[in-house]
Write the structure tokens for this entry.
Amino acid sequence: MNTSRHASARTAVSLLCLLFTASLAWGCEDVDNFDVSVDGETTVPAASPLELILGDLPLTESFTHFDITQAQGFRNDKYTVDDVDSVRLKSLVMTATVPEGADLSFLGEVSFYAETAGLPRKEIARQDTFPVGQSAVSFAVVRDDLKSYLLAPEGGITVEVLDSSRPEFETTLSIKAVFDVDVNVL
């Protein structure tokens, strides 16, 4: 009888140890992931008096080219491009920062693309709703693996702006993209 009680206790302790170990493993599943923020800024010139009168003339300027490998997270000496398993876009937010009170309503449709030689252009974020009075807008993002695009020597992110016009006042836009980077730890 005493032996069966000890066996039950050992089984219970073994089960608890197994559950504890499993919970540690599940809780640490992202130990090899980190976020890299990439910030960009551009200034959109104000509409000319003629553009204000005629309205909706196309905005032809493009935003800057983003280089994720220059972001602080990739300049870290602990990781190289070969250490990276995947890069996925988590979020992208565009904000009108100057002048105070500016919004993004002059924009129609904005799409961000990952591009590199030898691979098809890939849309990674898109927004076509820019409400009047709203200075910041989050984009719908595609969570595909972008490693082949963003870590290639000639790879990067480009922006396409459609159905947009110049704002009434010169407007500074900031763009913040956050990427989830998965590295191999073994």
Observations:
- Residues 1-31 form one domain.
- Residues 3-28 have pLDDT under 50 and may be disordered.
- The longest strand covers residues 84-98.
